[in-house]
Design a protein that fits this description.
Chain lengths: 214, 230, 214, 230
């Protein structure tokens, strides 16, 4: 069995983004998604610090220090880009104008609950950033994360253990082992799996019931 | 390729249903999507709830929309504009429902809808007739009333320039209700004076990011409106 | 006794506006106030349709149809002017950033209540515009109006009869007979009167107790 | 003549008192009023409540402000920035009070303060730990929590250009929290790269009307920040 790499996970998510969507990408693997959308397909990348229409990282020597993304990395702008302030940017997010947000995750529950900001109630200084706003506001929320923790514990659960970021918000999960839809009233539905992986093996690494797609 | 530019009014207004709530931009004639309003009248749509600042004047534009029986209810701040003959007649005859909202509350209710805020407190109108039936609350010794988001099915807006992504640039005092309304509707249609190439609008001049706009139609408003920027 | 003219009323109000204030002027006599602020004194005139920095009416042949004020009259811009949309314009008003608003009035009560939008509960289609927002939000609210109605009834009262625009909001009244402060806990305090008018005559035309300024 | 331009940091920060609530603009180093923060540290002011997105990194800027004991409480969305050594130390030792607010709620609470909205409902955070102690309400079948305006005594902001009226033009992604914060404080001080003549800023490019700004000080941020607009 060959698990998907980080880039493969990002690529698979990118493949599922149709032309014309306005997409917000979280820090980490989600940021890689932009690299895998072909330049022939127009997708508008929004960053919560008020950039609408981000392009790839700038070539050496052409950097503009004023243009950064939510991860504080230098960016370029594409034609058609515009800027707004934070209040307007989050109005866009909270108001349901972002077609898709892709975030990392600690845990996802079968009802779509997401935990990705704190690892316990006594977490020292948890840092939430814009994750709760995105979870509450985006039209669709996809999570990219490893299927299990480094020590092998499942991250797809019947119920989240860590403090929640948002309730019933995740609609799809791209893991290093599978792509799984979160279907209202049903739970986790497997769309596809890493080459050589069996459904039973995937179920064994998942702490909630998996359903096969028809 | 994203291309929100349409060529005909039929495409621009396709799918607007009877009973829809329609936001109409503009303050007076500035920033008012005249051609879209005319085309809306021609669709023969009925039972609309329209929200805008005034209730039209004379027998053109919004007044004609009401005169033709397309409108069931109007939400506005100032129905008595310069020549409100149609509004006053229909209202007196009980053929038009009126919801008066203070101008700033109207703008903020639309902004709240755009921003995912279902309700907010404001001091505007507290203790007045317009507070009747509304929840009120003392906060830090002052009385506030709860106002709710005004979400819409359709927004008809006007702008100076647009590109194929639907980015809009306003001119002079032509923004007024337009950027807020553009962001508060399921379907936003913009009438613009000029269409420019993608990349020709300055990122800081864009008053409405294309994210909010579904369709753009170019309409020459005539010689008196065509004066170019200095 | 010579009552003040409309222009004199506007001029007296203009004289009391210090440099640097941001001022919103209502429709009617209040609009005239701008004409009486000398060009050597910088006052920022705001209009609720999103103009900050209005200048005088344009000269014939130089009109720009896109630039109007709240009364829908054509305007010019001064150097330093800027535009915002309605939501931001009323955020400025509601948030207490307008130093002064000058409005017309039907009635003012001695506690500062203002009635200026409807003449009765059964008023056909009352039109409020931005008056309630300005009454609630401006730092100071001055009213310019005749001291009595056309048929001689006082417009300065112990309590308003017409539906209110705002509660305890008026701080000063410029009438054709006098300038009167509304002082918290005290009521109407006369600052000055039209030439030849006696305090008793003014009191006779006022339906609330007048106080003399010290 | 209105002239909000000051020449010295002493004038720029005059009157900021112990115990003040201070909004600090910027997202990362972009749009962050570095020189004003340095000058604020030098005033030796104490017991500040500061509100901003991050809690500083390394031992400079906001981190130094906290390290020097000027800050009693911080309201932010993401205290763990790239090198949060000062924040983590003070927080662990109980010397710093922390209020975590989702980034959009932080922006909206400041916007609410600027706009005269004392409280508003939002779905952000509903049902999470951050909803604890907050009023909640079902509206149209969804749960929302009530968030309150975050008003401040002082806002320190950064912009690209200013004129003597205090009109500010932002550059690139440098607006971020700045325009909202500038409008939400009793005293707003702007650090800008360039001062231009009154009338030289395009009325539609102004991101913060001068009405919101009390003082402007020109600070050259150094060669790496001086690249002119294309």
């Amino acid at each position: 069995m060959t698990p998907f790499t980080r880039d493969q996970m990002a690529h698979r998510a990118a493949d599922d983004i149709p032309e014309g969507w306005c997409v917000n990408l979280g820090i980490g693997i989600p940021t890689l998604v932009a690299n895998h959308v072909p330049s022939t397909r127009e997708v508008v990348f929004q960053s919560e610090n008020g950039v609408i229409g981000m392009g790839p990282a700038p070539a050496k020597g052409t950097e503009d220090l004023w243009n950064i993304n939510a991860g504080k990395q230098l960016i370029t702008l594409v034609k058609g880009a515009s800027f707004v302030g934070h209040a307007d940017s989050f109005a866009m997010i909270r108001g349901g104008h972002i077609d898709l947000c892709v975030l990392g995750g600690f845990e996802v529950a079968e009802n779509g609950d997401l935990a990705n900001w704190a690892t316990g109630e006594n977490d020292t200084a948890p840092a939430v950033g814009g994750a709760m706003d995105l979870a509450a506001g985006a039209k669709r929320l996809w999570v990219i994360m490893d299927h299990t923790t480094k020590d092998g514990r499942p991250k797809l659960l019947e119920k989240c253990v860590y403090p929640l970021t948002g309730l019933k918000c995740v609609t799809r999960i791209y893991t290093n082992l599978a792509t799984i839809d979160v279907v209202d009233g049903k739970g986790f539905v497997v769309r596809d799996m890493a080459p050589g992986l069996s459904f039973d093996e995937l179920q064994a690494k998942t702490a909630a019931k998996l359903h096969q797609a028809h | 390729m994203i291309n929100k530019i349409v060529r005909t009014m039929a495409e621009a207004l396709d799918g607007i249903k009877d009973g829809s709530t329609v936001l109409i931009g503009g303050f007076g004639s500035v920033g008012q999507p005249d051609a879209l309003i005319e085309a809306l009248i021609e669709t023969g749509v009925k039972d609309l709830t329209i929200a805008l600042n005034n209730a039209g004047s004379g027998r053109v534009g919004v007044a004609k929309l009401m005169d033709n029986g397309c409108v069931r209810k109007i939400i506005c701040s100032f129905p008595r504009s310069s020549d409100p003959v149609v509004f006053e007649t229909l209202y007196r005859e009980g053929k038009l429902e009126l919801e008066i909202t203070p101008q700033g509350t109207l703008a903020e209710r639309i902004r709240a809808a755009a921003a995912g805020i279902p309700a907010f407190f404001t001091a505007t109108g507290a203790g007045t007739l317009l507070a009747r039936g509304k929840e009120s609350r003392m906060i830090d010794g002052r009385e506030y009333i709860l106002e709710t988001a005004l979400k819409a099915d359709v927004a008809l807006v006007e702008a100076w320039q647009a590109d194929r992504w639907g980015n809009l640039v306003y001119r002079g005092s032509g923004a007024n209700f337009n950027p807020t309304m553009a962001a508060a509707a399921t379907l936003t249609v913009a009438q613009v004076q000029h269409i420019v190439e993608l990349g020709d609008l300055h990122p800081h001049m864009v008053g409405t990011p294309g994210v909010y706009v579904n369709r753009v139609i170019q309409v020459d408003r005539g010689p008196e409106w065509t004066k170019e920027e200095a």
